[in-house]
Amino acid sequence: MDREAQSNLVPTGPGGNEARSAPPKARRAGRRPTGAGFRLAQVGALGARLFAARIAPLGLTPAQSGLLRAIAREPGRSQNALAEHLAVRPSRLVVLIDELESTGLVERRRHHSDRRQRAVHLTDGGEEAMTRLVRASAAYEEELCRALSPEERDQLAELLGRIAADHDLPSGVHPGHADPDRC
């Protein structure tokens, strides 16, 4: 009997052995994944679903909410500057802005220093939507992290921030609207 076959035998009692059901490597390969990367992907997928459900009543998609936040943080940025900041193709950004403009949440104006550029601003309706979005985001975070204490949430955020920084992920930009080849 070769070594691998011998390693698959388990004692059954005095003088007897029987074969294991599978070699050790095969048994380990069948275990459920529990590593940090798997858990991040699992919780990330859950988080994306929960967030989308939380903001759906506001009439927003996650990509639109990210764009609204970017405009609110720095009103009057050009479409090109927004596309660069969000790592989105300009043609994709135009579609997002068109959607938000059609619902009365944003407006395009002439850029203050370059007449060829269009500056994007929140409307009064956009400001109201941001207030509701901030509340929905807080409720989402509470729901997602309810198993953690405030200190643990801070620690988790700090650890995830280190991972994001190590991979040069842009701060405050959700990957859901970024182009994969631009990240």
Structure overview:
- The chain has 183 residues and is mainly alpha-helical.
- It has 2 domains: 1-31, no CATH class; 36-182, Orthogonal Bundle (Arc Repressor Mutant, subunit A).
- It contains 8 helices and 5 strands.
- The strands form 2 sheets. The chain has a 3-stranded antiparallel β-sheet with strand order 3-5-4. The protein has a two-stranded antiparallel ribbon with strand order 1-2.
- Strand 1 and strand 2 (16-19) form a beta hairpin.
- Helix 4 packs across helix 6 (90-102), helix 4 (62-73) packs across helix 7 and helix 5 (79-86) crosses helix 6.
Name of the CATH architecture of the largest domain: Orthogonal Bundle
CATH class category of the largest domain: Mainly Alpha
* End-to-end Cα distance: 54 Å
Q: Provide the gyration radius in Å.
A: 25 Å
Helix percentage range: 55-70%
Strands, count: 5
The global form is elongated
Strand order of the largest sheet: 3-5-4
Total helices: the number is 8
Low-confidence region ranges: none
Task: Please identify which CATH superfamily of the largest domain we are dealing with.
Answer: Winged helix-like DNA-binding domain superfamily/Winged helix DNA-binding domain
Total domain modules = 2
Strand content: 5-15%
Per the CATH scheme, the topology name of the largest domain is: Arc Repressor Mutant, subunit A
Q: Helix and strand succession?
A: HEEHHHEHHEEHH
Main sheet record = 3 strands, antiparallel
User: Structural class from helices and strands?
Assistant: mainly alpha
Mean pLDDT: 84
